[in-house]
Amino acid sequence: MSQTEVPDLPDGLVAVVKQDCPTCELIAPVLVELAKKSDLTVFTQDNPNFPAEISNRMLDADLAVSWHHHIETVPTLLLVQNGQEIDRTVGWSRPQWERLSGVSELGIHLPDQRPGCGSLSVDPSLSAELTVRFGGSKLLGRRVEFASLEDTHEALFERGWTDGLPVVPPTESRVLAMLEGTTRSPEDIVATVPPDLVPCTVEKVAINAVMAGCRPEYLPVVLAALEAVCTDGFNMHGLLATTMPHAPVLVVNGPIATKIGMNSENNALGQGNRANSTIGRALQLVIRNVGGGRPGEVDRAALGSPAKVGFCFAEREADSPWTPISTMYGFPSGTNTVLAFPGEAPRNVVDQLSRDPESLARTYAANLISIQHPKLILGFDAILAVAPDHSRIFGDAGWSREKLVDRIVALTVRPGKELIRGAGGIPEGLPEAMADLDLPKFRPNGLHIVHCGGGAGLFSAIIGGWVNGEMGSNPVCVEIIP
Amino acid sequence: MTKVLDPTNETEPAKIPRVDRPTSLDGLTVGLLDISKPRGDRFLDRIEERLVERGLRVERFRKPTFTKPAPVDLRHEIATKCDVVIEALAD
Question: Are B1 and A196 an interchain contact pair (Cβ–Cβ within 8 Å)?
Answer without folding.
Answer: no
